[in-house]
Amino acid sequence: MQSKLSDIELIEQTLAGNQSAYTDLVKRHQRFVFTLAMRFAKGREDAEEIAQDCFIKAYRSLASFQGQSKFSTWLYSIVYTTAMTFLRKKRVATDSIDDESIHIQVENHSGYDVNNAENKSKSFYLNQAIEQLLPDDAIIITLFYKGEQSLEEIGQALGMEANTVKVKLFRARQRLKEKLERNLKHEVKELI
Predict the structure, then answer these.
(1) Residues 165-169: contacts with CB within 8 Å, 24+ apart?
(2) pLDDT at 92
(3) Per CATH, domain 1-93 is 1.10.1740.10
(4) CATH T-level fold of 113-192
(5) pTM metric for this prediction
(6) Is the confidence at residue 155, as pLDDT, over 50?
(7) What's the mean pLDDT in 77-91?
């Protein structure tokens, strides 16, 4: 089964003409690419367009992938540049914190699990706070924590030095903390 093949093996098969290998590669990375696109676009349709453009660009440029970094790092750099180009074209206000169009999809479970509900609640507030960050902060937080990318890999994806990423990550964490404190303070007031 091809899903057990590494990214490099799937790339080699794709370059040899096996289109289903690229489909497997897309399936493997589509969820996270979409998540990153959502950090920029803030709207599902725009994020889907960005994600689709990224996979088309990746396919066309696949032969230029040299394997010096992980495929995911290379792909995320395409997401970043595609999203920035998209934002320039759309001239979207990136600092809006009142965007209500983003919804977190919650899996349906039969039965109630307190730990699961608590984790979903934490995830909801964390995602809500990340959505309120500027796209540069949101992308660094997302790549580091959700994408489990190293500072060096994030630097490669975003075209900056690892030390710069470290500083930006520190500052993004501070801003995320402020957003969480503000959001949760508001939520506590609503509960009382």
Answers:
(1) 165/140, 168/136, 168/137, 168/140, 169/140, 169/141, 169/144
(2) 40
(3) yes
(4) Arc Repressor Mutant, subunit A (1.10.10)
(5) 0.57
(6) yes
(7) 83
